[in-house]
Amino acid sequence: MKKFFGLLIAIALLVSFGCSQQEKKLEIFSWWTAGGEADGLNAMLDIFKANNPDVEVINATVAGGAGSNAKAVLASRMQGNQPPDSFQVHAGHELIDTWVVADKMEPITFIFKDNNYMNSYPKGVIDIISYKGEIYSVPVNIHRSNVLWFNKDIFTKNGLTPPGSIADFFAIADQLKAVGITPLALGDNGIWAATHLLESVLLGTLGPEGYKGLWTGATAWDGAKTKEALGNFVKMLDYVNDDHAALSWDAAAQYVIDGTCAMTIMGDWAEGYFKSKGLTPLKEFGWAPSPGTAGTFIMLSDSFGLPKGAPHRDQAIKWLALCASKEGQDAFNPKKGSIPSRIDGDKSLYDAYLQSAMADFSNNDIVPSCAHGAAAAEGWVTKINDVMTVFVTEKDVDKAAAGFVAAAAGYTNM
Ligand code: GAL
């Protein structure tokens, strides 16, 4: 009998040891593999590891900008009830429509309340991560989509200043072409990068109200002004590198570093990439709002949430509290090329570009990014990307406009 109880106790101990072992892991899922984005993530993971030396941290990444591959892997894991402990998800429609409405996420308002963070974020940011009064993710940053980056040396040697309007862009592009420099770098082997360029051109042509109307139904996707924007996009393709369809976004950014191309229009994670290659803002590269978009900030935000059934929930909560903290955000964002989503980031840690982004974020008209999950549901963005795949090769404005009208059906006015 004694032996039997001894055995029972031993089994119980083993089981509880197994469980506590299980508690000592944290799997974070993202698509941050390129220079800058990987550095930012590591900076935050390093803090987590220092605070929790007994926890095994699994940095689960699936390469491919904008989550072009990661999202499919995540979807199949979630479907198979094998969620990571926490995953990267864009704040706004992507978070809410894809995961929260489908009842796959735990509300995490308590993390904000327990840490006294409810007033540490702008109301607009809290709004896009909330659903029916509960918060569902921690926004770790604010990114700007509509930025034109340029090679300073090329601009100086050719006496150029960054283009203020779309017409200026074409004038500068012609000058560059005439001296044998490819004006614009594009890397759309993930089609999202073409959609990314398009959203800047839509804003630059339609203006902020017209752009916002695309997502509410107030602006027609096949209206004359939208078609003018699509025409501008097609014309821009005359000025991009021939191998654009084979390149990733960071390879395109590298073309600007190398002087193969003079400019690129990419989110400010490109700034993180430039810095990861040893470049300094204002020295080797400069920036401006993408042509015609000064005064408007196309925003998106990377966030992390708590999936239901997270295998190491306690660790995930510690991770999310770190993502929500000033310390975490000030370690992550200066490397990532983004600004904190909190209102109290330490400005002195941010370089000249990021300080200008902070100022613009507080003064500009803020509009949501389509390519990065803020403006539209994931299903809609997928359809837009499908239209883009054809549009980039066929360059048929009327066909694309009709495709965008069909893509919007059932989604606008959300
Ligand atoms: C965006 C994401 C950024 C950056 C970029 C390129 O969707 O929000 O953080 O990672 O993709 O991968």
> How much helical structure, as a percent, in the residues?
40-55%
- CATH-level-4 superfamily name of the largest domain: Periplasmic binding protein-like II
The number of distinct structural domains comes to: 2
Low-confidence stretches: 13-21
Q: Number of DSSP helices?
A: 17
| Number of E-type strands | 14
CATH-defined topology of the largest domain: D-Maltodextrin-Binding Protein, domain 2
How many strands, what sense, and barrel or not for the largest sheet?
Answer: 5 strands, mixed
The N- to C-terminal Cα distance equals 67 Å
Which architecture of the largest domain would the CATH scheme give at its second level?
A: 3-Layer(aba) Sandwich
Shape: globular
CATH level 1 name of the largest domain: Alpha Beta
Major sheet: arrangement of strands? 2-1-3-13-6
Keywords:
414 residues; alpha/beta; D-Maltodextrin-Binding Protein, domain 2; 2 domains; 14 strands; 50% helix
